[in-house]
Amino acid sequence: MKILIVDDEPAIAETLAYTLRAEGFSAEHCTLGNQALARLDGGDHDLVVLDVGLPDLSGFDVCRLLRRFSDIPVLFLTARSDEVDRIVGLELGADDYVAKPFSPREVVSRIRAILRRLDPARQSPARRGAAPGAPRFDIDRDGCRIAFHGHWLALTRYEYHLLALLLERPGRILNRAQIMQAVWQDDGESLERTVDTHIKTLRGKLRAIQAEEVIVTHRGLGYSITAN
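Predicted structure:
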């Protein structure tokens, strides 16, 4: 597994890289957001550890740009532990969030947990796939979570509401405006391309469990989900 560490503090990055290599990972380091985007565009990394406070772009901006072309798992590192920062990071598509100072071994444990969650081949046989004929999706509305083929998806708040919306209307085409109204409730700061970004991220998380396309794009019309 190849991990990219993006942090402008060499001591932190080198310590984390050393720990990752000792645990069997391949790790490399860069200090700028633009450097990270260029490296990640190649698609040969498995996870990125991304510092929020970078010299050129914020980690949030890097994550936002990254989600335009990649569904790679993101673990944020930050000196800030405010709840608002954590929420912003997770809603941008990050998979986890660790505040500095941190234990390198804790970060490695979180990385392993993310990779296990996203890679069904690493899960136990008892949890791998659903029985023939069983519904592909299961919605826990009280817990705001959704399972796909027996695996709970790691979803942000908006991803959960978007997928739940489509599942409530299997086969029905919803345009971007309808989705924005239902999920973002006409948030003035949201743009319609936000829908496309979240659809792309959802598809990546679904494919990580089962290689089938369940969210259908209808060009010029919108999106639908195939019947359960």
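Summary: The mean pLDDT is 82.
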